[in-house]
Amino acid sequence: MLPLVADVFWLIADEKEEKSCPPENLRIMGDYSFTKLERLTKRPEFQKVLAEGEKKRIGRLCTVFSIPNGLNRKRLGIIASKKVGNAVARNRVKRAIRETFRQMKHRMTPAVDIVVISGKEMVAESYKVIDEKLSNALLAIK
Question: Is residue 26 part of a domain?
């Protein structure tokens, strides 16, 4: 006697469910994400950090402003104006800054708002150089 199509379907579905559980090492990756809660989004938030924050210039690469916040998390805001270059260049710079912050946030001082203003020099630099210089600056924030 042949098995019913529905029986075969449910057997295959059960096998897929068992395989669809993510491995243990992937569950930890959530700690290294860059969530919406970790972004500065509103203009007043940027203005407060720029007006009251501590300013640190990283050569001609970029300028970093930082100010402690009352929250229990670090937040990042990025400014890449049209002076930096075209849209492709600005997006590349922003990706490099976000990636550096995402990797460094666990080693930084907690509860701080950071605004990074990119410079023209950042476009020509490699990811490795940007990561190295920006990481040192982010770790120096108190």
Answer: no
